[in-house]
Structures are given as C-alpha cells and as structure tokens.
Amino acid sequence: FGAHSSASNGRCRFIDDTGEVLDERSLVNFRRASRSKLFRQFQIGRSIDRLVTTGSGCVICTDLRGQLLWVRKQPWRPFEKKSNWYLHRPSRPVFSGKSVIVAQPADESVTCLRSDTGSLLWKSPVRDFNEILGVSSGKVIVAASGRMLALNLEDGRVLWDRLQLGGRGFLVSGTDDRIFTLAPVSRNDEMKSAGWGAMGLASWIDPGDGKEQASWLVDFQLDGAKQGFQAGPMVSTDKGLFLFAGEYKGLNRTLFRLVPQ
Fold first, then answer.
1. Distance CA 56, CA 19 (A)
2. DSSP H or E segment with residue 53
3. pTM greater than 0.70
C-alpha cells in the first residue's frame, strides 16, 4: 500500500514483486490553500484490518480495500516558521491496541486517537517535536530537538525526559525493545592526524526509565565528513542494525551494519 499527495489524497495498491499499480483511488479533496509542500508529507500506517494516513492536517482511515472509514481534521494553532522547523521528520502512524498515535508536520504535539472511530483520546504538546520513534512497554517514545522523552500511552503524561544532544534515537524492535541512540563526537586535531574518521557515540537506553545502559564509540571511517556526520534512517533485523550515515548536509550516504555484542 502507498499514499500520494496531489490536489487530493489517494490510496494505491501495488504488486509486491514488480511494484506495478493494481488500483488507485482518490479519498479526500483538499483546497488550494492546503498545497504547501511542508504539509503534504503523507505517511501511512497499517494494522490488521485498516490503514491510517496523516498529512495536510488530516488523519484518514480506510479498510484494506480502500473504503473510507473516517476522516479527522486536526485542530491547528497558527503556524510559526521557526529556524529549526525543518528538523521535523514525518512520522508514520503507530498502532497500539485499539488506538493509533499520530503527529502532523510543524505541529509540536503527539495525538492518540481511537482507531475505530477517530475520536480523540489525548493530545500532548512536545516542544521542538521531531518524530515518533515507536511504542514500548506502555510508553510512546518521542524525539525532540536535543531531547528524548516518553509519554504514557494511557493519558499522554510525560514519564521521563532526557537530554539527547546532537544525535538521533531509534527504537530497536525485539524482545527487550531497547532504544539505540547515536550522537556525533567532535574530533581534535590529534585524532584527525591519526586517521580517525567521523565518530559517533552509540548508546543503549532503557525505555522503562530513560537511563543509559551502555555506550561505546564507533569510527565510521568517513574521512571526508569535515562538518561531522548525519545518521539515519535505520532498520533493525536479526542480523544487526542497518544504518545510513554520511557527512552533515552532504549528498552521499554509506550503509553500515552494526552487530550488537
């Protein structure tokens, strides 16, 4: 399944092996004022029996055949273009039980809805919000600029809030649901002359209390990364963590495989 944006929001169904479009259906029409590129970053999430798409300030729910079930127009506050608004990364809707957690571009909040009706369960403001990382142990793990925090899945209360300076956090799927974080490390002249490339401080974080369990330095051997490096996206598999990393603001990325010890 996929979602696309034009003058309307649509649903597409593809063949897995070839990518051929099986069918395509327009779901919601938007006014011309809704065509800003910032607000057309549509994201789609899937549960057992339904799809939820977010974008342009709307949350759209269909069944797996594309039949519309409900549409919710999020209340919006006036948009203020801050210097770091571009750090917001579109977040795919996350299902948990009978609820779905969503976020909208440039709206500094996380919202939890009933997946069957779209009615609001709770909405929590998150200053300098970046993205939803996932759900673990009854908590919604959220990344913000310079911070990582956990919201109570039941009511949206902040359970813990930790500093995460200059780095990224990734929720690693598995039986223990640990959080993997990666932050760039500055190199001095002696380290550069010794051949050290772009370095990152990798850490395991306990989603239960937000405390660090272990950390270690990783040399990514990116000699050209003079301004540091940018990491992500990341995929967790049974063969390790596959991570893209490259020079900050650079055009190229290298794929790394990290194997937890």
1. 26
2. strand 50-55
3. yes
